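User: I would dearly like some help making sense of a protein record. I have put the entry right below:
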Amino acid sequence: MYTMAVLPLRLSDDDIKALDTLVKEGIYRSRSEAARAMIHEGAKAKAGEVKDVSKIVQRLMRVRMKGGMPFKISYMKKSAAELVAEGRGG
């Protein structure tokens, strides 16, 4: 079992409307329940992203520590912003 703490926070009018819609549609019983669920899911998703990045960084560090170069550094004549503007950034 876990305990819950009270967390005062400020939300935009749009966020409040979204929570109210979830409650009105019967998905959640209250704003608090809806906000708690959204925070939980968002935190879980971000934790997964951090874990994925962490694994990649660890692999790169292992290769580097063994004296290897895990990637090639190339120099571009254009900045990333210029490439994105040309539609070549993705």
